[in-house]
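Minutes, project huddle
Topic: does the predicted pose make sense with 5'-O-[(L-methionyl)-sulphamoyl]adenosine bound?
PN asked that the exact inputs be recorded in the minutes so nobody has to dig through chat later. Recorded below.
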Amino acid sequence: MSQPYYITTPIYYVNDRPHIGHCYTTTVADVAARFARLLGRDTFFLTGTDEHAEKVVKTALERGKTPQEWADINAAEFQKAFDLMSIDADDFMRTSQERHKARASAYIQQLKDSGDIYLGDYEGWYDPSQEEYLTETVAKEAGYNSPVTGRPLEKRTEKNWFFRLSDYEERLLKAIEAGERGEDGGYRILPDARKNEVLGRLKQALNNVPVSRAVKEGDADWGILMPGDPEHRVYVWIEALCNYLSAVDNEREPSTADAEGGSREKYWPASVHVMAKDILWFHAVIWPAMLMALGKPLPKVIYAHAYFVAEGRKMSKSLGNFIEIDQLRAYSEWVLESEKKQAEKESREARPLGIDAVRWYLATQGPLGANDADFAHSKFVEVYNADLANGIGNCASRVGNMVDKYFEGKMPAPARKPDGVDQSRWDAVFHFPGMVNGCAGIAAHIDACAIDQALQLGGCYVTAIDQFIAQHRPFSIAKEDPSGRWSELGGGLTNAEALATILYHSAEAVRIASLLLAPALPNKMAELWRNWHCSPLKDPDDPNSGFIAPLSELATWGGPHSLKPGQKIEKGAALFMRAGPDETPPK
Ligand code: MSP
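Predicted holo structure (tokens), as shared on screen:
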């Protein structure tokens, strides 16, 4: 088995309702995890909720609940949202769980013992709305108001525990440089624009960071106490970061009760921590320094994407324009007019768009790199039509329909190259076997979290298949005398052989393209595979059941998993119906 792959999302504040931002990061991680599983990697994908913020105590009180009850309700909302999004996480970490609290507390104890955490005096600008201290520069720039919510900052002085971040400045710089060179012991910050920001800030003198807050009256025993100090609690950000380690530290995989082989420790260090740029500093500087102090290996990649905005405007509480989970649900439940008509004709129930269409938009149009991206209805429809309805959906149904019509729904056998035809001339016409070897590039994309490029490769295959069909016109060949000679390749094939070979190559290329699209479209591709009787899934009815072989084998032309001459290909209903120009956004 190749190297384990461990990917994480931020753990989300349990006080908020799930919105497109949370769903976006989690979908990116889900797509990357599905690619990693497809590559045959032993994969662990972690998401969860960050529950010990002071705000939780306040809101719970207002609602007549205990903090735990309030956290339970909202953590369940996140779980429901991620189920809706077809997120297949291996674990959902909640920081109020004992397994996290005990381990996080042990890490803090270790840092106290090593002297990396010490008791000192703290005076600084505190942002109560974000529960974080800001540097003098940041506070000043923001006019001593919260840069996030605009509410006033508070000057606070208190006895506090500090982490000696300043001791790690040089080692951090070296580790980032080493990571860029691909050396062990280093980590990469992606995309480059973000790395440069971090490096710029790192080169200024670093302050030690406070890692605790004073226990206040009415704090409802919420959070983790500083070991050996009942007056302080571990600052929520510091314990939250620990979740990435606590989830895999000495944890047994639920499926394996035995002591051997069932441990999750093999997953550390994480392959990728994914998040947005808002919380990069914590992940790219404070967390690696804490790990250095704990003597743990560093994560390989810190990936900080940009923001989703809504119809061109930044989403904010004051504008009230957050695209919430309900809106994403409405898109997944949207029944197009074209589908209603088609279903009526075929006397069947109309089918909604499905969540895959939403996943596709997020995964391919989202703010993966350094630039913000827009969620706009018109763009959603445009991308849906171009990539899904007119793209993979149309391509698969064209090929399926032709196999149905010309070969009674059975896969025809492709012809072999006749002796008289030059190999290079043959390969120039039937070029898919050479092209799909490109699947080898997927691993590097996934290591860099470039899911858009990995998916694009699948999209390029679809375009190539469409062009192949447009060029060789199997529907025209079908009208000719089958025993006549096909004009291409110097007449080396009969029309019947050419038709069979063109359709076989198209169908096999669709099958391979579908493997690369499946991480974003797990449900629709599972449907296609069922129709074509070529599912690579352990359980064809369960898109999360894992693959029977790694991509390198599944995508081998002429390999054991390729389409077999004579096998059944069912047309099935269209995977994605076209959205008309007059469709209005779903409510
Ligand atoms: N609890 C902390 C994270 C602790 S991780 C150890 C936190 N939580 S959060 O609920 O505010 O989530 C922030 C994250 O949500 C961002 O980093 C990003 O992953 C996601 N997003 C929130 N809004 C977003 C957009 N508008 N666009 C894209 N992603 C965004 O910070």
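Observations noted during the meeting:
- The first strand starts at residue 5 and ends at 13.
- The pocket of 5'-O-[(L-methionyl)-sulphamoyl]adenosine is lined by residues 10-13, 16, 21-22, 24-25, 50, 240-241, 275-276, 278-279, 307-308, 315 (CB under 6 Å).
No decisions taken; revisit at the next huddle.
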